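Bumping with the actual sequence this time:
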Amino acid sequence: MLGRRTLIGTLLAAMAACSAPAARDDSPPTAVEDTLVAEHARTIAAMKPPKRARPVIAVIAHNDGTETTDFVVPYAVLAASRAADVFAVAPDNGPIRLVPALAVAPQLTLEQFTARYPHGADYVIVPKLEHTADPTIVAWIQDEAARGAIIVGICSGVKTVAAAGLLEDRAATGHWFDLEGLRAEHPTMRWVRDRRYVVDRGVVTTTGVSASLPVSLALVEAIAGRRRATALAQELGVDRWDEEHDSAAFFLDATSKRTAEHNQAMQPKDVLALPVATGVDDIALAFTADAWSRTFRSKAVTVASEPAIPTRYGLQLIPDAQRSVAGAPVLPAPQPTRAAQALPTTLREIEDRYGGDTARFVALQLEYAWAR
């Protein structure tokens, strides 16, 4: 498929995915750090559940194309918190095709969710959708916002939030690749630099794909408190989930362009078998499959012995194959321990296989601050 796309088209399709941040030092807090702590407290307060003590969360998908990490990571982190009722919802009952890898089954249709929760969700998570302004989804988001749900746009899901009219006269952010277009099309939107997530009057927006992880932990903190968020972050292998971000570090430079052109031109593409089994960790799986499928040289395909695989946090994964793929190298199975570390681990493996430029190009697409 990549070979049939123009480079620009491929970049537009690919550049949609939140980073495991660096550790703090032990020096005494500065005035700047105190300010950031106060800012974080205000952000968390603005993300508190608007309706229920145990909130209801809809993670929305388009059946015909939804970004892998944007969708899976918020669903899994919030489900892992055990502090909310979390549902994967889509317009239709059919499979959800995730991009650039994986497929899952929805748990409820939009209609079924509305029938079950006529007063609406507490939170609606909006990943990057291939059909950005699908009228059914846009209308459903507008209805949920009108019922008081907090709308969370992950990465290029911000474009769908914008299509619902929810960026106007709001502070917001987005994937670095989308920002110029967002600001041109929505001139009353106020871009906030150097923040991985921003909240303004019931609308949360994030930077690129990897921001799905810190914003999900921030939601856990808002719902269940700092102690629960800290325990879950430690379990996942995450040191920080605050707002800090270096916006200026992410742009398409000459090396990235050459890498994209070189890798896209290479034929045939590598097919990499990714073994999965019942209880596979959703987060490790998403980061692994997503990163390997963004090199422009390779595609991760899931292989299992059954036609449907229940994941650790309750999704139904639909494997790509039920037997080994002839001639395909086999990737290590995703590991549940410190699942968030699957992303830097995979980037190191990509560097070993294809070189540092390709690994950095993948990290750029994910808006993930990474260096070997």
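The tokens above came from a reply further down the thread. Confidence is low (pLDDT under 50) at residues 1-8, 12-25.
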